[in-house]
Write a structure and sequence with these properties.
alpha+beta; conserved putative lor/sdh protein from methanococcus maripaludis s2 fold; Elongation Factor Tu (Ef-tu), domain 3; OB fold (Dihydrolipoamide Acetyltransferase, E2P); 4 domains; six-stranded mixed beta sheet; six-stranded antiparallel barrel
Amino acid sequence: MKAGPKGWRWAVALLVIAVIAGIAWFFLHSAKKPVAPRVATPVSAVAVKLADVPVYIDALGTVTPTRTVTVMTQINGILNTVNFKEGQRVKAGQVIATIDSRALVAQLTQAQGTLLHDQAVLANARLDLARYQQLIKIGSITQQTLDTQVASVQEDEGTVKADAGSVQNLQVQVSYCTITSPVDGVVGLRLVDPGNYVTTAATTGVAVITQLQPATVVYAVPEDYLGQIHKAMTRGAVTVYAYDRNKKTILATGSVLALDNQVDTATGTVKLKASFPASGDTLFPNQFVNARMQADTLSQITVVPTAAIQQGTNGDFVFVIGAANKVALRNVKAGPVYQDNTAILDNGVKVGEQVVTDGADKLDNGSLVKVVAH
């Protein structure tokens, strides 16, 4: 059935009314929803400042003793006593062991007796020579007799010198029976017990003594740092800190003692040795430590808290709080870190500007912020 003209008019009118009603409903409901204001993100901020920042070179080092001495016997004999406890600290010249010296003492006594006898013979020969020198003047003796006596005195003088050398040699041998420490240090584990026959041919020795003071640390740094190291050494003593394994505690403070004379071509590094005069018991031979060498100091350079520096695809950046509490993303060139601050090597930020230290993960360039802590 076909609708008449009147039916079509009613349909169109109803459609127009529906469209108008829909448009009215849309605007009415849209007007009821106000635009939400922008919410400021709470953040912490700190002002950019100037500070002196030391430049450090870090490396893994090994503690080396100043001297390690294996105490050997210099004569053969029975070891009488061992006068130390394992791990004991000893002083240079302190007795650490003794060897049976009775046979040598007897030989020394005999040599001293021979020396005294020959000294008496020499004295008598010199008296005879003095008399002959007077008698020759009055013609009581011949020149040959005088010459013979002169030769006799010289022969006795040689005998006395030989006797004196024998006495001195035996005195040295007797002194070797008392073994003393050649250095201040710590004695290791005992290598031989009393009652054993010790010889000069033995390789183990009586004891090993390690001199701990001053302690030294050997460490290697990349050859790229050679220029900085040379400049630092020309300015004076270069400070070195020995840290524990976790780089939390300073074990000792010293200075660079020597720089090796060549680069290791296999590793591309160069070795340095640092001395620590007052390390106490904190540095132990062959211990691994973290060496931190102060190569330079950046004087009055711009610094920001390390927590303010963020990493992005374009490098490091910070959020700087500007006018109307809106933040601006600034790319910066981060430099050495000292304590809680990082040096900025370019002009990315200026002294006095506020940088966000906490809450930066919620920000974008132009975000509105509210500083709640400084």
